[in-house]
Design brief:
Low-confidence stretches: none
Oligomer: single chain
Bound molecules: ligand NA7
Structural class: alpha/beta
Number of helices: 18
Radius of gyration: 24 Å
Helix content: 25-40%
Length: 543
């Protein structure tokens, strides 16, 4: 006999109201499903709500980033720059919410702390940090892949008496004009912050552990005829994105690297260097990512580009990565980044030469003494992709917690579900291609697939869905295969789960297979096939 179902507050609950959660909410409500979205922030937007640091902006072209599913949205929205800044993108998310009439179904300021699955009724209970609970049959988590911030584990990090904060929590009321500022961290975020604040602050000290290969963004205003022409080409733009491995406008050049002369290769690289955005990374010869020799040649080309922009050759050498191949970590796109180091008011402190000893009440002490600051900025990144899951108490069947299941790395089927956690859909989760793709392109894939699945479940009156162990094991192995013998796989970065500030994720720990690197087109084909085959690999139950 089926246990009586306790009253449901909603048939489906979406956790998170960033780009992904908002679209999922829309697709559920479009089907007439009683669904709401819960959001920890006081407003929607996710990444674009939280990251308010100076310089925060897209580094994929905005017109390749907005939602493609609605011609009406595309017609009404006008991007003002090739790579829009955070406030504009946050406005875009709010525009989408209003156009789709979703605001009434959002509950902002509600941080979910725990999810508990009840096996008898096949329902989830969600508990918010204020103790409120909600019950639903299906849960869609859209909690972000870079939303669990990490602070450095440095002695005294809480002792500093002045303003100090992680870039994700940038205060709205801070004015850095004329201030002595420290920035710790030179990832994609630090690089944007440093380029933006260097002209404004009194003095800037950048604490660098490992430099990244950065490349010019080449942003520009967008309007008039150029914008009209782009808007007229949306179909073509989205088709172009759909054909590339990452869902970006820029896809690999498949010409044989060795069939071209060195002069021809360099001429092509000059073109890429002058082009906008990720062209320098994702529009490169495919061989640059497959052949170590080809990569070494391109890395040397980019090292020369850095040298050419820095006045002091010693500083230039510090800014050139020695420990990883170009493109094996996320390539930060920069504006004024390298030039900042030519300013008299900017210092680069290589903490390999002069390690940080502690944060003091007034500043930062390294092995060569203390520097005092008015503000300390931590651009120290995130516990990527799985961190936001680890920070919730998610308890599935038989009392198993997701945190314990994923202790040594995530284990999923298709990056959308995980065994023993039925009816929980992980959107843009670990081991999906959505996390490596140009985000809304990946989101549209994930959300549309999950939405079709919901229609199928309703049509067949299915109460419980979860992957088989075999299907999950096969997927995990498939995802891992892309990391073996690859430059990305051997490089410590958030792509491989490295984070020195999280236990078990440090330099000595193993690579985490967080991302599906088989390419977005292959991923889409695979998940479509699975749907066409009646959701093979899943156990479906209507009892
Ligand atoms: P990242 O790319 O993880 O960068 C974090 C930076 O902080 C990186 O330079 C780290 O050095 C540095 N870091 C972290 N911990 C420490 C300690 N303890 N001491 C010194 N330096 C430290 O995060 P971002 O926020 O820049 O970017 C994340 C993504 O968000 C980005 O790729 C975009 O897609 C959006 P390391 O390199 O590890 O030596």
């Amino acid at each position: 006999m089926t246990a009586a179902t306790p009253a449901l507050d909603h048939e489906a609950i979406v956790i998170g109201a960033g780009m992904c959660g908002v679209y999922m909410l829309h697709k559920l409500r479009e089907q007439g499903i009683d669904a709401i979205a819960l959001e920890a922030g006081d407003g929607p937007g996710g990444t674009w709500y939280w990251n308010r640091y100076p310089g925060a902006r897209f580094d994929s072209e905005s017109y390749s980033y907005g939602f493609s599913f609605s011609q009406d949205l595309l017609d009404k929205w006008n991007w003002s720059e090739h790579f829009a800044a955070q406030p504009e993108t946050r406005r875009y998310v709010n525009f989408v919410i209003d156009e789709l009439k979703l605001r009434h179904h959002l509950r902002c300021g509600t941080r979910i702390q725990a999810l508990d699955y009840d096996d008898a009724s096949d329902t989830w209970t969600l508990t918010a940090d204020n103790g409120d609970t909600l019950r639903s049959r299906f849960v869609f988590s859209a909690i972000g892949m870079l939303s669990a911030t990490t602070m450095p584990r440095i002695e005294g990090v809480n002792d500093y008496a002045g303003p100090s904060f992680h870039t994700y929590h940038w205060p709205d009321d801070i004015d850095l004009t004329g201030k002595r500022v420290a920035v710790i961290g030179t990832g994609a975020t630090g690089v944007q912050v440093i380029g933006a604040i260097a002209p404004q602050v009194g003095h800037l000290s950048v604490y660098q552990r490992r430099p990244n290969w950065c490349a010019p963004l080449r942003n520009a205003p967008l309007g008039g005829e150029e914008l009209r022409a782009i808007k007229a080409r949306y179909d073509e733009i989205f088709a172009q994105c759909a054909a590339t491995p990452g869902g970006f406008l820029h896809g690999p050049d498949r010409r044989d690297f060795n069939s071209l002369s060195r002069a021809q290769r360099e001429a092509f690289w000059e073109e890429l260097y002058q082009a906008r955005g990720f062209a320098k990374w994702l529009g490169n010869f495919r061989d640059v990512f497959m052949s170590r020799e080809a990569n070494a040649e391109y890395s040397a080309f980019m090292a020369d580009k850095i040298r050419a922009r820095i006045d002091d050759p010693k500083v230039a050498e510090k800014l050139i990565p020695q420990d990883h191949a170009f493109g094996a970590r996320r390539v930060p796109m920069e504006t004024n980044y390298y030039e900042a180091y030519n300013q008299d008011n900017v210092d680069l402190i290589d903490i390999n030469d002069t390690p940080i000893k502690r944060v003091t009440k007034t500043g930062i002490e390294t092995s060569d003494g203390e520097r005092t600051f008015d503000v300390i900025v931590f651009a120290t990144g995130f516990d990527a992709i799985t961190g936001s899951y680890d920070r919730m108490q998610i308890t599935g069947r038989n009392g198993q917690t997701l945190r314990s299941k994923w202790l040594d790395g995530p284990s999923t089927y298709l990056g959308v579900s995980t065994r023993n956690f039925p009816n929980l859909f992980i959107l843009a989760g670990p081991q999906s291609s959505s996390v490596s793709a140009n985000f809304p392109r990946g989101i549209e894939t994930a959300v549309e697939w999950a939405s079709d699945l919901m229609a199928y479940l309703r049509q067949h009156k299915i109460r419980r869905i979860e992957p088989t162990q075999q299907a999950e094991d096969d997927w995990v192995e498939h995802v891992a295969s892309f990391y073996h013998d690859s430059m990305i796989g051997e490089t410590r970065s958030w792509f491989t789960g490295y984070n020195s500030n999280v236990d078990g994720h440090g330099m000595q720990d193993h690579t985490r297979h967080l991302i599906y690197f088989g390419g977005a087109p292959q991923y889409r084909e695979r998940i479509s096939q699975i749907a066409a085959n009646g959701y093979e690999g899943f156990e479906l139950s209507s009892k």
